[in-house]
Amino acid sequence: QLELITPFQLYFNPELIFKHFQIWRLITNYLFFGPVGFNFLFNMIFLYRYCRMLEEGSFRGRTADFVFMFLFGGFLMTLFGLFVNLVFLGQAFTIMLVYVWSRRNPYVRMNFFGLLIFQAPFLPWVLMGFSLLLGNSIIVDLLGIAVGHIYFFLEDVFPNQPGGGRLLRTPSVLKAIFDTAEDDPNYNPLPEERPGGFAWGEGQRLGG
């Protein structure tokens, strides 16, 4: 908007990255969500809400594991981005966070625009359908869902299977940097009355 830089300096382009050594594109392509508008606000709200709920929920006291999820998801998306025609991967990253949260909170009921009521695991698919109705490509949503599912399977499902084990292990260097020695016993997370953001993503836990 300020025209200090242009999207052409930020987008994901393997040729410019690997042949012209514009390494910053590996990161900047996740930071651009388009001009300020509905899609931009949509992504900002969901990115903030679900990133925060994961950090204060299943990743509480596990900052290094949280950072490792970011790095693992970003690596896979970048790898898959070599084979799909996507120039910005930020929205796919948001969908990945939504997917991981939704699978870890399967009993939360969601309310989408007051029209649909469904369980949390269906939220990424509802968002993909909504994106399709807006005329957007669903490839970015499918990429986020795929990467989120790979992470969830390797972290939450496979270790609990017969013969399974932890394939994803947070490097000790990340633990040394991000994990604190003790957790504050007096800390209370802020209440999440509307996990989906606003009325179109409101959640309520069953039996609560």
UniProtKB/TrEMBL annotation:
One Pfam family of this chain: DER1
Q: Name one GO biological process term.
A: ERAD pathway
For this UniProt record, the keywords arranged alphabetically read as follows:
Endoplasmic reticulum, Membrane, Transmembrane, Transmembrane helix
UniProt biased composition (Gly residues): 198-208
Membrane topology (UniProt): Multi-pass membrane protein
From the UniProt entry, list the residue stretches annotated as the region Disordered: 186-208
The UniProt entry's sequence similarity note says: Belongs to the derlin family.
Q: What is the protein name stated in its UniProt record?
A: Derlin
Provenance organism: Calyptomena viridis (Lesser green broadbill)
Give me the gene this protein comes from.
Answer: Derl2_0
